[in-house]
Specification:
single chain; alpha/beta; Rossmann fold; 5-stranded parallel β-sheet; globular; binds 2'-deoxycytidine-5'-monophosphate
């Protein structure tokens, strides 16, 4: 791996990594990749093809055969799976509910990690996910791990969902779902959510988005 400029940002659900990563990428003139969207795309396509989310072998074979392209658009990049724009489906509640199962499958991870590394070989990226600093880009120029209390993250997620869906889910349900996903992501055998030993931890409870962005840009310099 020759890439040395890309930046890895990892953290749990609703730690702010996507919002922050996108802004940091823009300021640095780097491309941005939210790797969670790739796991979501595999989940969406599997649901479309009636593949059971417990069927690891079939999921891995499907991921292997799936072509994924990130296409810059006027707003956020679009994600194409086998040429079809699946961007709008990636936050579907069915995908939310199933993606932790898909991202546990080692065969799926191997395929997606390979694609992510190839992208970082070609361009400078701010890449966000769970295993970027530990597995995908262990030689990233900078590794950041964003932390935030579970209560703050659940409140953020609750707010996001209410805005997206236009209706409020009970806070307790959002908290329970987030805690469940944290547990699956942290306890899985392959590439569990962890801060890399050389990652710089930023606790975001007392910082706004701009504050976190400024900290990361200062580290880059
Ligand atoms: O960040 P997110 O909520 O969109 O991620 C969706 C799922 O994918 C979540 O269960 C964690 C998993 N994921 C992963 O295992 N590795 C990554 N690099 C990114 C996401």
């Amino acid at each position: 791996m020759t890439n040395i400029k890309s930046i890895a940002i990892d953290g749990p659900v609703a730690s702010g990594k996507t919002t922050v990563g996108r802004i940091v990428a823009r300021r640095l003139g780097f491309r941005f990749l939210d790797t969670g969207l790739m796991y979501r795309a595999v989940t969406w396509v599997a649901l479309q093809r009636d593949i059971g989310l417990e069927d690891g072998d079939t999921l891995a074979a499907m991921a292997e055969g799936l072509t994924m392209d990130l296409v810059p658009g006027s707003g956020d990049d679009r994600l194409l799976a086998d040429g079809e724009d699946v961007t709008e489906h990636l936050r579907d509640p069915k995908v939310d509910a199933g993606v932790s199962f898909v991202s546990r499958v080692s065969g799926v991870r191997t395929v997606l990690v390979k694609g992510q590394r190839e992208m970082a070989e070609r361009d400078d990226f701010v890449m966000v996910g769970r295993d970027i600093g530990t597995v995908v880009l262990p030689n990233a120029r900078l590794k950041v791990y964003l932390g935030a209390s579970v209560d703050l993250r659940a409140r953020r997620r609750h707010h996001e969902i209410s805005k997206e869906a236009g209706e409020a889910l009970p806070y307790e349900q959002v908290l329970a779902d987030l805690t469940r996903r944290d547990r699956i992501d942290s306890e899985r055998a392959d590439s569990p959510l962890r801060a890399a030993p050389d990652a710089i931890r930023v606790e975001t409870d007392d910082l706004d988005i701009e504050g976190v962005v400024e900290r990361i840009l200062a580290m880059v310099e």
